[in-house]
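Please fill in the sequence for the structure shown.

STRUCTURE ENCODING:
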């Protein structure tokens, strides 16, 4: 999960020039008697060591200053937590693209299979889709360069570029004798992080693949669209294999379902300063049940959403235990184009639970495949947090999850109408069965509650 922290950034950029100036000063004076402020004793030691390596090591090509500084900084962060790291310029550029959800390109998703670059799918309404590229096409040349001589990352990099620039591809298509030459014009490609569809009348399904700029707004549009078409009797929010992303988007997504109260707390190195994010009643979708699907690939921002909805009892969390990343990072650009990804805080759910190295335990555990065994859980005595009875992994759902009640309501027939791979998704089918059954029972309860007898009884007891 990523959050910018301008103050920390300024502090870091103030320290960096001091390191370089200290290096220069010691390069000019190698005398042991160099005076140094006590505060910078350690910094002087580092600078002196860098100078000795740069000027005296036998192989001069291995001790150039930029590489030495990068190695020194990498050595520092490697001693910290696994999410704090030095990011090379290319990695920094990629994570910027991931969080912004847009880049200059032609809009094609590819995979490398046995040395071949195969089109998985063109993204809807992009140059690739409009230019006639189809799923299953093999890209054999990019700008005249044979693809077999390129790594997958290099091939993707070559297809990206400045919007307005041209890209020439040669592709091989099944049942077409001659290679096809296609020229496309690059444009800004917007990668959608939210996708949704109707599972049945009044029942929606939305999947969030990552939390990037605009995720909350995209989800709100889907919810409004569902409500405008058929109304909503229930929603499945799929966060499986969602690695996280931007903290503010996790808060915004949670806020869509929670009317009031705490969403998440973050605590940095100042133990007296706890930052809290709260929900707002305006524009909240709170009048239908929600099931959230999670698994071991649900991390960070995904866990914030799942934890908030679980603590507020706004949603039923189903699937398997999440990854357990309970920390917040910020990314700080460095002068050479690289960046420092730095852990700055821990986060806590509304009930002050830390999920660090523990994860969110689902209310109802469902294995990924029907008949698959769920890993044995820790005993209650081994857990540091208290969980509700439904969350006890020893009481997970058996593989025959479509009950007689569910079958009698025609849920199996509804699921049979879904496209693949959704139809074979065991966790999704089970979540839909619970959601559909709950909504039906809830409607029946409301009907009973509104009978003249019950209304008369209520009036009498007032």
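FILLED IN BY: designer on duty
SEQUENCE:
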């Amino acid at each position: 999960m990523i959050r910018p922290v301008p103050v920390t950034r300024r502090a870091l950029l103030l320290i960096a020039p001091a390191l370089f100036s200290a290096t220069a000063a010691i390069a000019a004076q190698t005398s042991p008697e160099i005076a140094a402020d006590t505060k910078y004793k350690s910094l002087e030691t580092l600078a002196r060591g860098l100078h000795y390596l740069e000027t005296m090591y036998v192989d001069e090509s291995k001790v150039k200053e930029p590489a030495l500084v990068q190695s020194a900084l990498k050595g520092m962060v490697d001693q910290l937590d696994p999410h704090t790291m030095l990011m090379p310029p290319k990695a920094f550029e990629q994570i910027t693209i991931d969080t912004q959800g847009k880049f200059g390109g032609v809009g094609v998703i590819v995979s490398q299979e046995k040395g071949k670059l195969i089109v998985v799918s063109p993204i809807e309404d992009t140059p690739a889709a409009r230019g006639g590229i189809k799923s299953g096409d093999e890209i054999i040349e990019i700008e005249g360069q044979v693809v077999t001589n390129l790594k997958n990352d290099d091939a993707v990099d070559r297809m990206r570029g400045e919007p307005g620039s041209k890209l020439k591809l040669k592709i091989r298509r099944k049942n077409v004798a001659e290679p096809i030459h296609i020229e496309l014009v690059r444009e800004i490609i917007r990668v959608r992080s939210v996708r949704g569809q109707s599972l049945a009348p009044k029942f929606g399904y939305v999947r969030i693949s990552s939390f990037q700029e605009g995720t909350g707004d995209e989800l709100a549009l889907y919810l409004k669209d569902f409500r405008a078409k058929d109304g909503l009797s229930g929603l499945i929010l799929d966060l499986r294999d969602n690695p996280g992303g931007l903290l503010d988007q996790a808060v915004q997504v949670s806020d869509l379902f929670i009317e009031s109260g705490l969403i998440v707390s973050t605590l940095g190195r100042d133990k007296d300063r706890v930052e809290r994010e709260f929900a707002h009643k305006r524009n909240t979708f709170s009048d239908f049940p929600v099931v959230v699907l999670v698994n071991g690939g649900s991390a960070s921002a995904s866990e914030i959403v799942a934890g908030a909805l679980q603590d507020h009892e706004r949603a039923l969390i189903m699937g398997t235990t999440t990854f357990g990343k309970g920390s917040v990072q910020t990314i700080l650009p460095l002068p050479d184009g690289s960046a420092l990804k730095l852990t700055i805080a821990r986060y806590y759910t509304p009930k002050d639970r830390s999920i660090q190295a523990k994860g969110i335990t689902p209310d109802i555990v469902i294995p990924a495949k029907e008949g698959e065994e769920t890993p044995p859980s820790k005993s209650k005595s081994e857990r540091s947090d208290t969980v509700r009875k439904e969350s006890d992994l020893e009481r997970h759902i058996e593989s025959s999850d479509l009950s007689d009640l569910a079958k009698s309501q025609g849920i199996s027939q509804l699921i049979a109408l879904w496209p693949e791979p959704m139809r074979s998704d065991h966790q999704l089918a089970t979540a839909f069965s619970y959601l559909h059954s709950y909504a039906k029972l809830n409607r029946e309860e409301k009907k009973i509650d509104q009978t003249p007898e019950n209304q008369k009884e209520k009036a009498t007891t007032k």
